[in-house]
Amino acid sequence: MSTAKRKPGPKPKSKPKASPANEIEFSIKPNTKTTVTIEAGKEKEGKVQVRIRVDGEKIQHAARLVEVGDESLGIGARIKGVIENSSKLFFYKYKNYDIAISLFVGAIILYLVTRLVGLDQYPIYFFTDEAFQTQAMDELITMKYRDVQGTLLPAYFGNGMGLTVYLQWIPLLLFGKSAVLTRVISVTFTMIAAIAVGIILRDGFKLKYWWSGTILLSITPAWFLHTRTAFETAVFVAFYAGALCSYLLYRYRSPRYLYLAIFFGALAFYSYNPAQLTVPVTALILLVSDWRYHWENRHTAVRAGFLLAVLVLPYLRFRIDNPNNSGELLHLLGSYLVSDMPISEKIRLYISEYFFGLSAWYWYIPNNRDQIRHIMKDYGHIMLATLPFALLGLAYLLRHLRDSASRAILLVMLLSPIGGAMVQIGITRSLMFVVPAAILTAIGLDSVLRWIEQPSEALKEASNASKPTSKRILASLYILLGGVLLAAECNQLIDSFAIMTLAVLLGFHGLGLFDRFKQWLGHARFISTWKVPHLIISLALFVVLAGANIFILVDALKNGAFWTKEYTELQYGAFQIYDIIEEYHQEHPEARIILTSSWANGADVLNRFFLGVQPWLDTGSIEGYMLQKFPVDENTMFIMVPLEYSKALKSDKLTDIRVEKTIPYPDGTPAFYLVHLRYVDNIDEIFAAEQAARAILQEGVVIIDGQEVAIRHSYLEALSQSDSIRLLFDDDPLFTYAKTFESNPFIIELTFPSPRLISGFSITVGSTNAQIKLNCYPTLDAEPVTYTFEGKASEDEPVLSFEFPEPTQVQTIHLEMLDPNSPLPAQIHIWELKFAFND
To answer: Is the domain covering 567-687 a CATH 3.40.190 domain?
Structure first.
C-alpha cells in the first residue's frame, strides 16, 4: 500500500509571515496506480484541515509531487505558489518522461515527413474528390458564401462533402489553388489522429511505450496512403480519433474535456457522410457504457448538451432542406438496402459485410477487394507483422472490460464497419478501424517489451495470482470451445488463426495456465538478474519502427507508379496534363482545346480547379463529334485517351488525323494524344442519314401493371435502348430516367395485350414546362380520343398528374411530351410514367 507523509511547514517566527505551501510526499512502489482524494475542511486557526485517502492499483505511473496551498494567503502569494507548483510539476514530469516525450515528438516529426515528402509523386493521381474541396470553397466565395440553393454557409456540398471544404478556406485565400497545398492541409489535420493515439495510450492505458502507437499508426499502409491524399475520409478519422481521445481525458483527467469531445465529434460528423451514422451511434453507446460516471458529472453533461444542441443546428437545417439526401446517397452508391430484394436477404448481406469488415484477412492480407487507387501493392491495409501484437492487445481489452478505456476502444473497433456494411466494405468507408488497431498493437507490443526489459517485474504478478474458480474454469473452457467452432467456420486461414489465438490467450489465462508458467519461469536464475535498460529498448524500438516508416515512403515514391498498369482506373494525369495544356495555350493563344472528359470522374471539376473557366477550353469527347457535327478547324486541338484515339482512327467521318504530341504513362505507354483532325468532305450526308435512322421509333417490351406491353419510343441516349426505356416503369421516380438523344418531343407509344380502362396518368419530368398530347385508341383499328395537357414541374414538385374527363378504354396510347423551351437538338428527360387503371 502506498504511504503518505505530511511535511509540517516552518515554525512561525515572532513576526507573522505567510507560511509557504505545505508539501505532501508519496512513497509508491513501481507499477502501482494510486488514486488520491483530497478533502479540504474549514479553516481553523489560519490553517486548512486536509484529509487524504489513497487507493492503489497496478499501473505504470510514478508518484508526483503535490502541494496544498493555504487559502489564507494573499492573492499575490497564492499566484506565486501556483507558478512554483506548476514549475516543479513540469520539471518533475519532464524528468520522468523526457525519453518518452522526446520519442513522441520524434514520432510526430517522422509522421509529418513521411506525409509531406513527394506529395505530387505518390499517390500518382490527383482525384476529383480531392480537387472538389478547394474548388467548392472557391465557388462558394464567388457566390458570396451561398450555395446554388441560396443557403448561407451550407453544411454539405455536392459529392457528399462537408467540413473538409471549409478547411481549405484560409489557405485558398492566402495562396490560391494548388493540388499539393490541398493535400498539405489534409495532412496537417490528420496529425490529430497521430497525437490522439499517443495520448490515449499514455493517459488511458498508462503504457510505458505509449509513443509507439503514433508510429504504428503511421506505418499502417492504408493510413499512409490515404493521409497523403486529400480524401475526406482521412480527416474524418482524425477528428473521430480526437473525439475519442478527448472522451477518455474526460473519463480519466477532467470532466471538462467533455466539451472538447463533443466539439471533435461534431467536426467528425460534418466531415464525412457515413459519419452521420457512426458518430451518433458511438455517442449513444459510450453514454450507456459509462452511465454512472456521466450521472456523477451530470452538471457538466447538461452544459455540454447545450453545446451539442448548437452544433446540431446546421445539420437540422440541411435535413429540412434536403429530406431525401440519405436515400439519394444510398442510390448513388448502389446500396442493396434500396434494392427490391427481400428484407431477410438485406439483413443477411449486412451481417456478412459487417463481419467481413472485422476480418483479419481483409485488414492484414493484400487483396483486390478495394479499387487499386486505394491499395498499396503487396501490402495489406495493416502490416501483417503487427497482427500478433494486436491479438495480445485485444485479449488485454477483453480481460479489462471494467476499464472505461478498454470498453471504448473495443466499441470503436466494433463500430468501424457499420457504415460500410450498408453498401460494401471498402477501405475508405472503414478507415476508422486503423485507430483502434494501432492502439491494440501498441498495447500488445508494450506487454512484450516489458517482459524483455525486466521479466522479474512481470513474474511478481503471477506469484500473487489466486487459483481460478470453478466458474472461471468453465467460462474458459467455453471460450476455447467457441474459438474452435468459430475458427472452423472461417474460409480464410488467417481468420481461423486470429480467432484461435485470441481464444487460447483468453482461455489459458482464465485457466491459470499462464500464471503457472510464469511461476515456473520465475525459478530460472537468469530471470532475477535480467534487465535491459529502458533507454536502449526505447531507442531500438524507435529505430525499427522509423526504419519501417521510411522504407514504406521510399518504396512508394520509387515503385508506386509501377505497382499497376491499370492507369485508367487510377485516373492518372492531373499532375501532368494541365501543365501541358497551359503551356500549349501560351504558345498557341488562338487554339481551341477539347479535353476529353473520359479520363477522370468529374473531369470538369479538375478543369476548373487547375485552369478555371476558360473560353478556349471545352470538355468533351471525340465520340460526341462523331455523333453530331460541331465546328472543327485547324485551330482545334483534341486531347484524347488511347481508346478514343483508336476509335477516331477507325471512324469513316474523320480524316487527316495528325498527332502533335503524346503524354506517356509512367511505364512509357501513351496516356494522352494531342491531335489535329478534320471531318471528311461528305460529312453532312453521313450525319443526315444517321439522323433519319434515329428518327424511326425504337421497339421493345416493358412490364406495366404486371403485363408485358409493346412499346415504341424515340431514340434514346443509352447503350441499350430497351434497358433505358424500362426505367420509366421501374417505380423509381427519383433516381432513374430515360432521355432522348436529340428529339423533342419525347414520343412513347404503348400497346396493351387487351383494352384497359384508364382514368388518368402521372409523369415525372423534373424542372420543365411540359405540353403533352395523348392519343388513346380503344382498339387497334379504332379512331383515337385525343387529350392535351399542359403543366409546369419544378425541382420540388417534379410530378405532373392529369385526369381524363372520364375513364377511357384504351388498347394503344400514343404520348408526345414537348418542351417548348428546348430547341432541337434537345434531350428530354422523363423519370417515371404511371397510369391510373380502373378495370
So the answer is: yes
Mind listing the pLDDT tens digit for each residue in 516-548? Answer: 887 777 677 777 778 899 999 999 999 999 999
pTM (predicted TM-score): 0.83
Three cell numbers written together for 59: 499501473
Neighbours of 679 (CB within 10 A): 19
CB 394 within 8 A of CB 451: no
Beta-carbon contacts of residue 579 (< 8 Å; ≥ 6 apart): none
Question: Are 549 and 492 within 8 A, CB to CB?
Answer: no
Q: Under CATH, to which class is 696-837 assigned? A: mainly beta
Residue of 545, 553, 537 whose CA lies nearest to 441? 545
For strand 22-27 and strand 32-44, is the pairing parallel, antiparallel, or unpaired? Answer: unpaired
Nearest-CA neighbor of 777 among 785, 788, 787? 785
3-state secondary structure of 431: helix
Distance between CA atoms of residues 179 and 87, nearest Å: 45
User: How far is residue 147 from each of residues 150, 153, 155, 579, measured CA to CA in Å?
Assistant: 5, 7, 10, 30
Cβ–Cβ < 8 Å for 54, 82? no
Tell me if 621 sits within 8 A of 644, measured CB to CB: yes
Cα Rg of the chain (Å, integer):
34
Domain pair 567-687 / 696-837, same fold: no
777 near 811, Cβ under 8 Å? yes
Q: What DSSP letter does each residue of 473-487 carry, written as one string?
A: HHHHHHHHHHHHHHH
* C-alpha dist (Å) from residue 531 to 203, 446, 535: 26, 16, 12
How distant is the alpha carbon of residue 340 from its chain centre? 27
Instruction: Give the start-to-end residue ranges of the domains of the chain.
Output: 3-73, 101-326+342-454+531-544, 465-530, 567-687, 696-837
Please write the tens of the pLDDT for every residue from 443-499: 999 999 999 998 877 777 666 667 888 999 999 999 999 999 999 999 999 999 999
User: DSSP string of 788-828?
Assistant: EEEEE--SS--EEEEEEEEEEEEEEEEEEEE-TT-PSS---
Q: Given the DSSP bridges, would you call strands 592-596 and 617-620 parallel, antiparallel or unpaired? A: parallel
